[in-house]
Design brief:
280 residues, alpha+beta, three-stranded antiparallel beta sheet
Length: 280
């Protein structure tokens, strides 16, 4: 029989907490990407881009599973497969890393941004549905295909916007504003995907009272690691005074950006006799 499902078992607590984690991950990812674009050696750039990917991936993943704490299906316990849950975290970090490194090195040219956004968005959607596949109920879980497609589209658009903002938005307050918007997009993708879910409880085994203690304990344990990573990333950003003060004087990586000899970026300028490069 079809079970009554809810995403808000604890009221506004889980969606608000999930949104804040999405905003935190987005903000840290944007700030770390900005730092990677400043002049420096390749190793430092890779380090900042890696931290940006971990921040974004952990923020998105943590948002998903905090939101899942509020999910209930009447008449069924809910459990999670540990391996698939960990796999969903690794997928989230991996796909955001691909997107961040693409725009971090190649800029925000339309082809690059489109490819990076589509790949990352599909990966974020895959993370969501792998996390859902890790969930087991006393029955079966079905999905409404049109709503699933809409959630994937939202994920692609959100990922593209995030990557564009990562290499375009300048200044501390602008980055914070962009992270608030990204938080809406990411959590919107999650709850759109969850709107596609229907649970059919197997009545042959008899009905029983749902218990959430084990589920909450498992999710809190799994979320603890990514939250620690976000705290570490926040600490690193806090000790970078240029980022805190909003001194983001870095070149825009677009169609006119060219690599400088020592890992920086410059602007292409024209002269009467041809073209010349001016580096900052």
């Amino acid at each position: 029989m079809a079970a009554t499902v809810t995403e808000f078992h604890y009221g506004a607590v889980t969606p608000v907490a999930a949104y804040l984690m999405a905003c935190l991950g987005s903000a840290l990812g944007l700030r770390c990407t900005v730092r990677s674009l400043r002049r420096g050696d390749r190793g430092r750039r890779n380090g900042w881009l890696s931290l940006a990917a971990v921040s974004l991936g952990c923020g998105i993943w943590t948002m998903h599973f905090i939101a899942m704490m509020g999910f209930r299906a009447e008449g069924s316990d809910i459990a999670y497969d540990t391996r698939l849950t960990v796999l969903s975290l690794l997928v989230a970090i991996a796909v955001t890393a691909v997107g961040v490194f693409l725009v971090g090195y190649l800029g925000s040219r339309p082809k690059v941004l489109t490819a990076a956004g589509v790949f990352t968005g599909l990966g974020v959607a895959a993370m969501h549905y792998i996390g859902m596949a890790a969930m087991t109920v006393h029955g079966s879980i079905d999905y409404a295909a049109p709503t699933v497609a809409l959630s994937v589209l939202i994920a692609v658009v959100a990922a593209t916007a995030a990557l564009w903002a990562a290499v375009t938005v300048r200044g501390l307050w602008a980055s914070l504003g962009a992270s608030l918007v990204m938080g809406v997009a990411v959590t919107g993708m999650h709850y759109t995907g969850m709107a596609a879910v229907s649970v059919h409880v197997d009545a042959s085994g008899g009905s029983y009272v749902q218990s959430s203690v084990d589920q909450i304990a498992f999710l809190l344990t799994m979320v603890a690691g990514p939250v620690v990573m976000l705290v570490v990333a926040a600490t690193v950003v806090m000790f970078d005074p240029d980022l805190v003060l909003g001194d983001d004087r870095v070149p825009t990586l677009g169609a006119d950006a060219v690599p400088a000899a020592r890992g920086g970026y410059g602007e292409r300028t024209s002269t009467g006799n041809g073209s010349a490069h001016r580096y900052r």
